[in-house]
């Protein structure tokens, strides 16, 4: 009698009991079993060694089993794995907060350590709402954002995601109704930027009396459609926020730590926010951790609200293991090697994906930093596209009408070429 296949047994249990993201339990999509990972590669039980074109949802920027990050975890776990952050503190959290202030845009001096990107957005929204109350403006309870945005899957975050074209439309009737401007135009069209600017300014002026803040992803909208927009639009948002007494909240969860070619995407526009959300690559993809940074002004205004304190406190806030590995990740970034790597990967993606423009059903091809996107004129057949990429030795996770990649910065030129072949194969069958 043949011995049972351990991989098949695990996958059977997975299919029966494990609910994966954006998946049905009645008819679950196939999952692949990861048996190992190193550098920019995953080992899959059914496909062998493949290049990870997704950086584990954009987080594993240094790849897997990075020696410096591994060492940071091992060293910290010998001290203690976790303590509550209420009334206590510890060195990794303190040093991480100080380091984030050093690398953040000017003016951001206060740091709240959160559990995940979505939670950091929730905290940021609380911050600006409480700060407006502290300013004596409790009627300012709505937020101004743009179409095409995505900020997370928790309730406050869902409310500032696109309510029509986003993935949370079924919840529209139970979410707060905020104010949505048109999606900012793509770079390079000055006339379109001017038209958008006039419309945005008019909308903000009409609702200024009830608005607390502007909340956007700078330059690159992530899960809302991987749309790249003109940096001039971000400068307009800063001007509008200042004109009407609004806070500017920038969600750099997907774009932070070099992904778009500058350390933070907002740098390309020369803009500093009042509140900044970071996550994903903060720990190099090792552990869940996010942070919310704000100005002294936001902190003072918030502290003048009736509660006097920020009404949020996650159980695992400031986890020492996560903070230690985040510090190690920032040390790796501090060498500056990421700049050349992102530029090299970006060049490889621009060249390697150019041929996709001639494929049937392709509507657009765009790149920004270490991001490559092939947009189709129809929804992706995820199963077929994923398998086509795997046949080329690449792991991708297409969604909606997009086949895209955000590779680890440690990818070689050969890895990038393989990723481009995988994207092209996926787009051709999707």
From TrEMBL:
| Pathway membership, UniProt | Cofactor biosynthesis; biotin biosynthesis; 7,8-diaminononanoate from 8-amino-7-oxononanoate (SAM route): step 1/1
Keywords attached to this Swiss-Prot or TrEMBL record, sorted alphabetically, are:
Aminotransferase, Biotin biosynthesis, Cytoplasm, Pyridoxal phosphate, S-adenosyl-L-methionine, Transferase
Which residues hold pyridoxal 5'-phosphate? 117-118, 251, 314-315
Q: What class of enzyme is it?
A: transferase
Where in or outside the cell it occurs: the entry states: Cytoplasm
Sites bearing N6-(pyridoxal phosphate)lysine, chain numbering: 280
Which parts of the sequence are marked as the site Participates in the substrate recognition with KAPA and in a stacking interaction with the adenine ring of SAM?
22
Determine the domain of life of the protein's source. Answer: Bacteria
Annotated residues that bind substrate are located at 57, 150, 280, 313, 397
Task: Name any cofactors this protein relies on.
Answer: pyridoxal 5'-phosphate
Catalyzed reactions per annotation: (8S)-8-amino-7-oxononanoate + S-adenosyl-L-methionine = S-adenosyl-4-methylsulfanyl-2-oxobutanoate + (7R,8S)-7,8-diammoniononanoate
Family listed: Belongs to the class-III pyridoxal-phosphate-dependent aminotransferase family. BioA subfamily.
Alphabetical list of PANTHER family matching this protein: ADENOSYLMETHIONINE-8-AMINO-7-OXONONANOATE AMINOTRANSFERASE
Subunit structure comment from the entry: Homodimer.
Function according to Swiss-Prot or TrEMBL? Catalyzes the transfer of the alpha-amino group from S-adenosyl-L-methionine (SAM) to 7-keto-8-aminopelargonic acid (KAPA) to form 7,8-diaminopelargonic acid (DAPA). It is the only aminotransferase known to utilize SAM as an amino donor.
Q: What protein does this entry describe?
A: Adenosylmethionine-8-amino-7-oxononanoate aminotransferase
**Organism the protein comes from:** Nocardioides taihuensis
Gene encoding this chain?
bioA
